[in-house]
Amino acid sequence: MSLSISWNELPRAEWDIAHGRAGASYQQDWAYGVALKAASPGVAILRAAVARADGSLVALAQVVARPFAMVGRFALCTHGPAWVGAVTTTEKREAYRLLRKSLPQGWPRLLVFTPNEAAGDAAGLSGMSRVMTGDATVLIDLTQDEAALRSAMESSWRNKLSKAERSELVLQKSGLKPAQYRWLIDAEIKQRQKRGYRAMPLELTETWQDAKAEGAKGDRGAGLAVFRADLGRDPAAGMLFLIHGARATYHVGWTSEAGRDNAAH
Description:
By secondary structure, the protein is α+β, with helices and mostly antiparallel strands. 33% of the residues lie in helices and 28% in strands. The protein contains eight helices and ten strands.
């Protein structure tokens, strides 16, 4: 088998198309690298493209590298590599080998992958060791019709949905100017402080939107979708999603006490 790898050479337009074909995570989106670099100038954003001899892409891998233990480099490929089209187990194994061997970082270094697929021989992970527990991610296929989506829910979720539908909640898609969704970001900040949890830094939200718009000829809707539920004149709940290719990832969510009573969130 003949695969080749290049680092930081694939143009953004080609990366974005391949990323969409792969149905990849937002952490493998070009815009995420741009946003992360803007927030943390000391990190290195490394983008690899693995291709066959005929030029067809096998994988994309966006790697974030940081200083580690004073003298080393820690490199993380989150929810990657992103496999483009049909890729064999042998090709995956070779892609991992090329990524580890050619990573453009000096020694000592540690490269960690958190693949967006189940462990096993088919994932091409033989010869590698698990060093941490991976994320648990729920994926919902929104191409299904409403009846299929409802039937797949647990009964408690269906009951809450029915309760919300019977309520006086009014749902609307919000505007995408930062000032129009800032209220939701502020509510999330207070919520994180109160509950003591961490997630993707909220300051990356607007930078992500800017980076997505840059790759979509200025379209501010290319990277975000914001929804709001109102009771009367007051917001009862809000959700903000990151858009990447044909996928959307839940990023921020908040509900008021009244919203909670009406199963708004």
